[in-house]
Amino acid sequence: MNVRAVDGSVEDSYRFNPWRAPGYAPVVDACGQAGGRYGMCPIGGDSVFTNTSMAKLGDLGSQVLPQTRNKARWAAGSSVEVAWGIRYNHGGGYQYRLCPANEPLTEECFQKMPLEFDRTKQALVWNNGTRYPIKGVYVDTGVKPA
């Protein structure tokens, strides 16, 4: 979409999107925001979010996500499978990061520990479990943190 626009021009409808400057875009909360926007905000697209006892639209993850007893334990250097889902073709770009539980959950803390992707096992997975292997696209330059 918008492929004929000059980068950064008024016609470039994506000029302010975070994936144009990975890691440099402002972050509302280091642990995410329920539904991707505040409830009172009229913009932000068609966010589909169901309020639960855990969070309501606009809640900040660093403030509402509870500590749990059952935590995943991964050995340093191991490879684990993770997944995420998209809606309305809003794929963007992603980087997985960790922040020690005994430190404040800030963007700066998470940027200290980016995780490497296993570049051999990407796949699309449908709701019925069908897997379709794909070749991932990786951006290693111009990303903060590298």
Task: Please compute the radius of gyration using only Cα atoms.
Answer: 17 Å
Strand order, main sheet: write it out: 1-2
- The secondary structure category is little secondary structure
Number of strands: 2
- Detail the poorly predicted runs: none
| SSE order, one letter for each helix or strand | HHEE
How much of the sequence lies in strands comes to: under 5%
Considering DSSP H and I runs of 4 or more, what fraction of the residues is helical? under 10%
Query: Major beta sheet, specifics?
Result: 2 strands, antiparallel
**Overall mean pLDDT score?**
82
The dominant shape is globular
Tell me the span between the first and last alpha carbons: 27 Å
Fold topology:
Elements (H helix, E strand, L loop, with lengths): L60 H4 L42 H5 L11 E3 L5 E3 L13
Antiparallel strand pairs: 1-2
Structure characterization notes:
The structure is a single chain. It contains 2 helices and 2 strands. With 146 residues, the chain is low in regular secondary structure. It has a domain of 75 residues. The chain has a two-stranded antiparallel sheet. The longest helix is centred in the last third of the chain and has 5 residues. The chain is globular.
